[in-house]
Design a protein that fits this description.
Largest sheet: none
Pfam families: BPD_transp_1
Protein name: Carbohydrate ABC transporter permease
Family: Belongs to the binding-protein-dependent transport system permease family.
Mean pLDDT: 84
Distance between the termini: 40 Å
Radius of gyration: 24 Å
InterPro entries: BP-dep_ABC_trans_perm, MetI-like, MetI-like_sf
Strand content: under 5%
Helix content: over 70%
Membrane topology: Multi-pass membrane protein
Low-confidence stretches: 1-5
Number of strands: 0
CATH architecture of the largest domain: Orthogonal Bundle
Order of helices and strands: HHHHHHHHHHHHHH
Length: 282
């Protein structure tokens, strides 16, 4: 009876798993596919009800017009790149040692500190928007890539610490003890032993921090004006007072997400391994 139930439940379970995966893929990839399709449709075809997706409605004019007026988009991409690279690099430089200290060093109440670090992400951004704006305004750093990078750093650093701490907790203690027997101190062990085997979680944390900074819209909106505008703000400008140029907006969005997609493809194996190790080993 038990064998019969297993035989009956096996294909059913596999079917449910396949169905769940199909639903997940459609749910995740659907908006991306529609983004690409929309970027290739004429304005009239896109705003018609329902949208006209016949072959005659497809065109490359949206990309041509966006590239022809590429000054604003290019500047936004450059600003986003500088902000994202800065916040990502500093997050890793500060987060990796902090995570290792919380995982391995005798820090009092290390678990409580780690929880408080993660708890900072539970505060909605709107709650700190006004005091943050006032503080940055008093410092004269409104519309500055520098100030925006530090704001994003405050958001990315806690997540980087949490991801890496989980991985460091899963490293066998014997490896570090062997290094200590050979005369390596804490810093030497961290630099020469721990970091080289931490490439996957470091890559996962780096990609996460980069994407978060690249896509952020709210704080970029309130802390920038013209010179420091990032890609999301440039894309939003395609929505005018009387008309939204949807096709060009989608084309600009496709161009802006290309670097992130390339980054995810290049580091896909490290991302999967890094998140799996960082989230489960702790």
């Amino acid at each position: 009876m038990s064998f019969a139930r297993r035989q009956h439940g096996g294909p059913l379970l596999r079917g449910l798993v396949v169905l769940g995966l199909v639903v997940f893929v459609v749910w995740s990839a659907g908006p991306v596919v529609w983004l690409i399709v929309s970027s290739l449709l004429e304005q009239q075809a896109l705003i018609s009800q329902p949208p006209d997706v016949s072959p005659s409605a497809f065109t490359l004019d949206n990309f041509v017009q966006v590239i022809a007026a590429a000054a604003a988009l290019g500047k936004g991409i450059l600003n986003s790149l500088m902000v994202a690279l800065f916040s990502t690099a500093v997050s890793l430089a500060l987060g990796a040692p902090a995570a290792y200290a919380l995982a391995r060093l005798p820090v009092p109440r290390a678990n409580n500190i780690a929880f408080l670090i993660l708890a900072t992400q539970m505060l909605p951004g709107i709650a700190i928007a006004i005091p943050l704006f006032i503080a940055i305004s008093k410092l004269g750093l409104i519309d500055s890539v520098f100030s925006l990078g530090f704001v994003y750093l405050s958001f990315n650093l806690p997540i980087v610490v949490w991801i890496l701490r989980g991985f460091f907790l899963g490293i066998p203690v014997g490896i570090e003890r062997a290094a200590a027997v050979d005369g390596a101190g804490v810093f030497a062990t961290f630099w020469h032993i721990v970091l080289p085997i931490s490439i996957p979680p470091l890559a996962a944390a780096a990609v996460f921090a980069f994407v978060e900074a690249w896509n952020e819209f709210f704080f970029a909106l309130i802390l920038t004006r013209q010179s420091a505008q990032t890609v999301p703000l440039v894309i939003a400008q395609f929505a005018g007072q009387y008309q939204t140029v949807f096709g060009q907006m989608m084309a600009a969005a496709v161009i802006s997400v290309a670097p992130v997609i390339v980054l995810a493809i290049v580091f896909r194996n490290q991302i999967v391994r890094g998140f799996a190790d960082g989230m489960t080993k702790g």
